[in-house]
Amino acid sequence: MVGAGLSGVGAAYRLQTERPGTSFVVLEAREDLGGTWDLFRYPGVRSDSDMYTLGYSFRPWSDSKSLADGAEILSYIRETAQEFGLDERIQYSSKVVAADFDTTTSRWTLTVEDPRTGDRRTLTCTFLYSCAGYYDYDQPHAPAFDGAEDFAGTVVHPQFWPETLDYAGKRVVVIGSGATAVTLVPSMLKGDSAAERVTMLQRTPTWISAVPGRDKKAEKLQAALPAGLAHAAIRVKNIAFSTAFYQFCQRRPQQARKLLTQATTKILGDPELVAEHFTPSYDPWDQRLCAVPSADLFRAIKNGRADVVTDRIERFTREGIELASGRVLEADVIVTATGLKLLAFGGIDPHVDGRRVELSEQFVWNGAMVTGVPNFAVCIGYTNASWTLRADLSHRLVCKVLGWMERRGHAAVVPKPDADLTPQPLLGLAAGYVQRSIGAFPRQGDRAPWRVRQEYVLDSITTLRTNLARTLIPVTPVAPRASEQLTPVDVSQ
């Protein structure tokens, strides 16, 4: 397994529990576990899904705080790994830089590099499972701004937040309007290190919804029921609500727009402000909805310590940012919360018998395995609900596939796509970070089991009931032609 974040630890638990005795290792490129929650250290970093469903079903989240801080989530992952002995399965500073499957031996050969020293070693395995998500941890989306070298202040990106950054009493401009930006703005106004003022500069508005900081219904259930039963009831409640709201937005977009607009106007008390800065042109959930706990962003704007500007950047100046309208935003610190870059399978570039597999020509089966790549699976979470809900289904599906292969005597299998599948993008979101990179990913089809649905209830019913023999086929070894000599993968490129 590749990646020791929220998904990798969950996958390790499932494999250890459902297939006891299986030999496995978790390869982690960084020097600690946690993935996203170890990497991102900017002020206020937190979950944007409720922890009762983002947390593991086998280790209930017991705090009443629904949206948890990054440090709390990191501790939760670390404690889970320690409790079940999964931390002993992790090899740190182990980045997979090449992966080649040999159909004659039905084995993967992995080239693993220590990012600190550049030293490389080789590992082999029969099955490879990428749990590294689809974000590029090394390079964020960082557009070039004219005049950036002229700015006299400090420019930082949230993905590489410097621990020594001092913004106390300073003027801060946060470029962006996504989940990171709406988290940063109120967080940089708290405590002894609070900024003097924070401005959120956005090119276009984003749908933002205020949510309770604590789940009072969850607290009542926890007080009234045994821990396990309370956790199950809270998960069912939250899954039902998030699914219903998503479907409502998809089926009745105009009513959803009205509902969100009215809720924001009620908090801010300024219809013109809401119309200009918090009413996007796209419909709710065409892009991921941003959640702000206890309306902290709106409260910061209402009390006058934060503001939002909707305009385009002309250039950076010595004093700050010159906008297309001619206005200049003066700043001491500029935070470029301009988004993430997608990277397929944590950068793993799979080869089969020495030949590179063109991922953009492949299909994803049951949201987990990929055509053209034997004995390989990926963990892809939901975009409209907690990532872990889908991830856990994929972990259990991989365990089922391994058991089925063992019973059938198959050394290697690969999904076989239907001939008449209509290719569609793997992720259906219209967000810029998705549209910029999705062409490099495998595709989904127009029907099951090739459709990557955003419907947990349906997936929970059907995924583990999939007829494996209908769509998974044994792999036939590929012998090189007389005129063609296969060469090893050049891992230096």
Automatic annotation (TrEMBL):
InterPro entries: FAD-binding_MO (IPR051820), FAD/NAD-bd_sf (IPR036188), Flavin_mOase-like (IPR020946). Coiled coil: none annotated. Its cofactor is FAD. Keywords: FAD, Flavoprotein, Monooxygenase, NADP, Oxidoreductase. One of its GO terms (molecular function) is flavin adenine dinucleotide binding. Transmembrane segments: none annotated. Belongs to the FAD-binding monooxygenase family. This is Predicted flavoprotein CzcO associated with the cation diffusion facilitator CzcD. It comes from Nocardioides scoriae. The lineage of its organism: Bacteria, Bacillati, Actinomycetota, Actinomycetes, Propionibacteriales.
